[in-house]
Amino acid sequence: MADENTAPENSVAENSTFDEQRKFPRVKTDVKVGILQSNGKMAYARIKNLSLGGIYVQAEYSADKGKKFQVEFSLSIKEKMYKVIAQCKVVYIHYGSEEIVYLGMGFVKFKDDGKEKISEYIQTRL
Fold first, then answer.
1. Which CATH number is 62's domain given?
2. Cβ within 8 Å of residue 70, ≥6 positions away
3. What predicted TM-score, i.e. pTM, was given to this entire model?
4. pLDDT in tens, the chain (126 residues)
5. Does 50 reside within a domain?
């Protein structure tokens, strides 16, 4: 059984029909996210939508499907900033125009109270 900081299996769908398969409500957002690369450097992108299952990221680079990354981002909840650190897995890749890539990343596990902060953030925006 997964602990409370582990995301559910298949949290973000793996194909273009994932809107029909969503298990969690999602909210549109525009939040800067740091993605820790295997070389130890942080790359930055924008979270375009967020759910308890994962994030949809707009980036200027791609990643291999199935690859896991640590992500870090801050959420503003009731005029306070909260840092979320989580491990994510790339489950969906869409190539946009002009070198823009969209990555669907499912949460694998959270550090500290990240899952609760995401839930609180989403509730304030539904």
1. 2.40.10.220
2. 35, 36, 85, 86, 87, 88
3. 0.82
4. 444 444 444 444 333 344 546 688 999 999 999 999 989 999 999 999 999 999 999 999 999 999 999 999 999 999 999 999 999 999 999 998 888 999 999 999 999 999 999 999 999 998
5. yes
